[in-house]
Amino acid sequence: xxxxxxxxxxxxxxxxxxxxxxxxxxxxxxxxxxxxxxxxxxxxxxxxxxxxxxxxxxxxxxxxxxxxxxxxxxxxxxxxxxxxxxxxxxxxxxxxxxxxxxxxxxxxxxxxxxxxxxxxxxxxxxxxxxxxxxxxxxxxxxxxxxxxxxxxxxxxxxxxxxxxxxxxxxxxxxxxxxxxxxxxxxxxxxxxxxxxxxxxxxxxxxxxxxxxxxxxxxxxxxxxxxxxxxxxxxxxxxxxxxxxxxxxxxxxxxxxxxxxxxxxxxxxxxxxxxxxxxxxxxxxxxxxxxxxxxxxxxxxxxxxxxxxxxxxxxxxxxxxxxxxxxxxxxxxxxxxxxxxxxxxxxxxxxxxxxxxxxxxxxxxxxxxxxxxxxxxxxxxxxxxxxxxxxxxxxxxxxxxxxxxxxxxxxxxxxxxxxxxxxxxxxxxxxxxxxxxxxxxxxxxxxxxxxxxxxxxx
Length: 457
Hints:
Blueprint: H1 2-23, E1 25-39, E2 52-68, E3 71-83, E4 112-123, E5 126-134, E6 150-160, E7 163-171, E8 197-208, E9 212-225, E10 237-252, E11 255-271, H2 274-277, E12 281-296, E13 299-308, E14 318-319, H3 338-344, E15 363-372, E16 378-388, E17 402-416, E18 419-430, E19 446-456
Parallel strand pairs: 12-14
Antiparallel strand pairs: 1-2, 1-19, 2-3, 3-4, 4-5, 5-6, 6-7, 7-8, 8-9, 9-10, 10-11, 11-12, 12-13, 13-15, 15-16, 16-17, 17-18, 18-19
């Protein structure tokens, strides 16, 4: 009987402590994506190209727990984000195997990977969010990488009428060195980094006037690399630079326009020992984006311009590359498309092989598009894109700055309000940029067929 009373008392205490959680409101949201690709010649070689065919998927679930009025907890995870049929690991994983850490073959591809957990609390008239959450998201999709980047963040928003003022601090994921032995246990260890840090401090404002909004974000990056107790090596340096990021969105009758500009200035490398590493490297860069869409239902048409400054390979004292057009912004089905680049790998071959999953870089892009919605659930769209590099590739001997021209055709149908199906076709007239430094290379055009099923909830 005594044991029974102990069990009943334990259950009662557990229920008492759990009651606040049971009383909390819980909201689920997220998405499930399945997308298939067939690409004819991703290497862009007329005498050695190879086709690719894959299907990838991702389940994303966000859970919002409303603990009480003004206080909530948010979590988000991705599950089974992988290529269909891909093994969990390469056959012989290791540094010498290029497939060892390939997408779809890492340990996350068959597990639940939590990316977000943060508290939201109404404090002092504003909203405080603290924990792992989306980073690199502000203004338009251009220059944003919210789909890819997340990490530790403390953010505070304060709203006054149409104004929102924002202050935040980010810790860049993967930047912190930790050793359970502590500093004393690492004396004499050249790998121990006393001041290995990567943080950004941000202030911003947004003004909303009903049919549009504008804002300005100012970043300060403070990065230390391999600054340790040992004698200075050639790698030890600090990077400190500023980013200014204004944007605007506006609806003017049937015309919608948006644009964003990003400017970078500061130091890319302040060497701890200039006698070994040479002179410091300055940091400077521009990028800009503007698009306009005119709606004359059931049709619409518009144009987009993108500029992301490239780095001059002949300039060893200044890094002039832009901050990157971001992975959320995908104007084409092939060129600079994040998902395609992530799952299909680099485009081109040899010295010209380019990682498209890094977002737009070193580019001048002009695009015109037109679409029609014959019925509310169907959207047919065609676009034509001309793309050039701003600077030569990684060498002054680069053959051309011409990426090429791309034609995209898509049809998207909403099967249900929360379920859509897209089919697309893209053709790339590849330019001589893809020759790299090889003047004798024979470049081939490429085409892509894709379809995508998206469930949102």
